[in-house]
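Notes from hallway chat w/ T.B., transcribed later so I don't forget. T.B. wanted the structure written out for a chain they're using in a teaching module, and asked if we could keep both sequence and structure tokens in one place. Agreed to drop them here.
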Amino acid sequence: MITYILVSFAILALLLFAVRTVRGHREALELEDLQGYATPVDIVAFRNLVDPEEEEFLRANLRGTDFRRIHRARMLAAAAYVRSTARNASLLLRVGQSVRSSPDPQLAEAATQLVENAQRVRLHSFYVIVQLYGAAMLPGSHVSLAQVIDRYQNLTEVLARVTRLQRPQLTSRIAMVV
């Protein structure tokens, strides 16, 4: 029964993703606009939240019911972080698309990398969210989030490069936004 629920949930999530991708925002987004739309993601806290050693410590030191309750809360918190990374990646995709046609070849190349990385982060994020909800329901399951965190960190580094090339005066402000 649980398998059918998980499969149904995964299918619904993929359908939602497909609809959002097709109907997604097509309008350009400027670097200055990120401050009003992006959600800051604390990478250090995110890594700590999903640290396998921390999970093992909790498993070893808590009663079964307490561990399952805390594990569920941690997986749901991790899903919130992943949703934020997916939302930010969607915004950065729009920024990259607006800058990609720049006459400056370095900026155009950096914007192309931003678009490609943002697409990868979005796709991987939706896959991981399904896994996290499954792990929240089944505490014995393991979800590796290192790849989505690393990809998001790489995405923010490419954004920093685009910002330095296009609007150097915004570099420190943009870094705090995502």
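Follow-up for T.B.: The chain has one domain: 2-177. Might be a good example for the class.
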